[in-house]
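Example S7 (structure tokens).
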């Protein structure tokens, strides 16, 4: 069961997505302990939790993801790998898959338009504006090399979901057209 609720939310803009506050050691401990408690509750109810690192949040890069994974119980807190957010953060999504293979419970397949990401850095854009500018796209339409990622997930015997995300303006990128592009790419490169 995948659960996500976001109702009546407001997205505010802030500064450059890479200039953000950082957790203190005490806050890291609170987050890790809280996730372990939630993981225990989930396990008692036949579920698992998977943490999703994400740009614009307190855990957005490989170093922060590593710290969180080290501070949490691997039997209680799993990982959602997001290829687009990993690349956006300056990290290698393949390395994340290799480092946390047994803990991966969900994968978001998202590609990056490198020229837009370069513009994000040049203009010091916030996260919301970067999405509006089109930094993300579907697999196969950007710069990420998915073949080794699919291979590594296969080696880990990954059996979970692949969720294709584009986070694009539907006026600029027809959703059905991009969904079909993604489906064809995944069929060709992942064999599913």
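Recovered sequence:
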């Amino acid at each position: 069961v995948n659960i996500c609720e976001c109702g009546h939310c407001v997205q505010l803009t802030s500064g450059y997505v890479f200039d953000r506050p950082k957790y203190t050691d005490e806050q890291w401990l609170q987050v890790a302990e809280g996730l372990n408690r939630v993981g225990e509750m989930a396990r008692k109810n036949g579920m698992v939790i998977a943490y999703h690192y994400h740009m614009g949040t307190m855990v957005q890069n490989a170093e922060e993801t590593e710290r969180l994974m080290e501070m949490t119980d691997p039997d209680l807190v799993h990982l959602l790998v997001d290829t687009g957010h990993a690349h956006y953060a300056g990290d290698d999504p393949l390395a994340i898959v290799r480092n946390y293979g047994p803990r991966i419970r969900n994968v978001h397949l998202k590609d990056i338009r490198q020229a837009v990401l370069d513009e994000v850095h040049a203009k010091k854009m916030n996260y919301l504006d970067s999405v509006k500018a089109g930094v993300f796209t579907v697999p196969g339409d950007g710069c990420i090399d998915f073949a080794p990622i699919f291979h590594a997930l296969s080696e880990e015997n990954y059996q979970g979901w692949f969720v294709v995300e584009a986070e694009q303006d539907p006026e600029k990128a027809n959703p059905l057209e991009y969904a079909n592009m993604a489906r064809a790419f995944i069929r060709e490169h992942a064999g599913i």
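Notes on this example. The first strand starts at residue 49 and ends at 52.
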